[in-house]
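Technical note accompanying the year-one report. For the benefit of new consortium partners, we illustrate the data format agreed upon in the data management plan: each record pairs a sequence with a structure-token string. No post-processing was applied to the example shown here.
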Amino acid sequence: MSQVNATNSLSQIMADIDLGPTGSVQFMFAKLQLAQSQICKNEAESYMKQIEDIQQEQKECAEMIELARKLQNEAKSGDKCTDMPPEMVKFFEQRGLSWEETGGDKSHNADEWDYNLKSLTNYQEQIGNKTQTLMIYLQDFIGQYNSYQEGAMSAISAATQTLRSIARGQ
């Protein structure tokens, strides 16, 4: 059997699969099952990449939450305001997150940091939910892949048994 590239086109995958010089219905069914399994594998790999990207985003968000808590604690301990660092401002802006804007600056007291932390934790929860959804889809594609692979192997086994029986004259 030949290796198949990462295309999602059923016809292209079918053309790439070589089960030998036979035209039996069982081998054609096996070929179709293998092509379907390849499509599922490609989709699963796509979801794995998305999950990997989201996990990186979760890491960055956790770092921002940690930094915001540190700045909030500094503001509490000195009963003063602490400035939102430029990398945090950029993080908020790139993701469309809101921050406390009392006074029109990026300097916040402990209570104002609560608002910023809520914004960050809500965002963290959203991306966590997205990860869970993608994991469900990934599991579904893995299940389909396994089912198609099993179907292909069963068809190949049945076709091989039929050919053996024919060869023995039974």
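Partners are asked to follow this layout when depositing records. Residues 10-168 form one domain.
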